[in-house]
Design goal:
By secondary structure, this protein is of the alpha+beta class. It is about 25% helix and about 25% strand. An 8-stranded antiparallel β-sheet has the order 5-7-6-1-2-3-4-8. Helix 1 (about 5-20) packs across helix 6 (about 200-220) and helix 5 (about 175-185) packs across helix 6. It is elongated, with a radius of gyration of 20 Å.
């Protein structure tokens, strides 16, 4: 599933073309992805200007001049690409946004989603935080406001294990299964440790690892395990930097211990038993 680094990489790429562009039309080749697609999306954005493109967690948000914001979620297998207007659709192309760049060039943004767990929607920009997909999101994983006092206050009395806490989008949004394993490895924290039992040094180490891992993954274009690819067609190269995820039965690069695979809340979790003592 595309996580924060993959979504940020996609956002940065499409921003080069879409910022200040005019939306000409939106074509929908599916009436439903994860949820029903509002049919008004096909007409409400015609001839509007894209004012801002940003990200929160795993969502790409596109503010337009009609005071509405497009909301994009890539789901488990979705990816975006930019093409010329004579583009011929392929299987699993569900949404095409035709637009005119500031240079006068006409192009299109294609949303392809094989497993159909992604979504596209829109909402009034001024009331965006009330949208059902946005209103419960926690702090973004790369937010400068993600600091010790914030996490310490949340973790203080919770019996939640740290692996599940990292995946809880209501606490920190954007971190998924791949990066949760990597963050905990770098922090030297066992994934089954309860958050209320984390000491100050462990919380600080966690914060540092969250920022470092997510930032480095963005620089490498994200991580491609199966389906994900960048809008320019390239895979994400952070896979080569993974220390534990997907390395079951292989030696730890740090201490030589054999990497283990645990099942926590039905999610695969990879750990080094030597570096991450329980």
């Amino acid at each position: 599933m595309p996580e924060l680094p993959e979504v940020e990489t996609s956002k940065r790429y499409i921003e080069q073309y879409l910022l200040n562009a005019k939306i000409l039309k939106i074509q929908c080749y599916a009436s439903k992805l994860r949820w029903e697609i509002n049919p008004d999306i096909k007409k409400i954005f015609n001839n509007t200007i894209i004012l801002k493109i940003y990200r929160i967690g795993k969502y790409i948000l596109i503010n337009t001049s009609n005071k509405n914001t497009l909301i994009l979620h890539l789901g488990m297998s979705g990816y975006l690409s930019i093409s010329e207007t004579d583009y011929k659709i392929i299987k699993h192309d569900h949404i095409i946004i035709n637009f005119k760049c500031m240079t006068g060039e006409k192009k299109c943004l294609i949303f392809n989603d094989q497993r159909r767990f992604g979504h596209i929607d829109f909402h009034y920009t001024s009331q965006l935080k009330k949208h059902f997909l946005i209103k419960h999101l926690g702090i973004d994983g790369l937010s400068k406001s993600l600091k010790f006092d914030f996490l310490n206050k949340i973790f203080l009395k919770k019996t939640l294990v740290i692996k599940n806490a990292l995946l809880d989008q209501k606490i920190i949004c954007g971190i998924g299964n791949i990066y949760a394993s990597e963050i905990l490895f770098y922090s030297k924290i066992h994934p089954l440790k309860k958050v209320k039992d984390l000491c100050d040094n462990e919380i600080n180490s966690l914060l540092l690892s969250i920022n470092n891992i997510l930032s480095k993954a963005v620089l490498h274009g994200g991580t491609t395990i199966k389906d994900y690819k960048q809008p320019n067609g390239k895979v994400g190269y952070f896979k080569q930097k993974l220390k534990v995820y997907g390395r079951e039965k292989l030696k730890c690069y740090n201490c030589g211990s054999i990497i283990l695979k645990l099942n926590i809340n039905k999610r695969a979790t990879y750990i080094c038993p030597g570096c991450q003592k329980h």
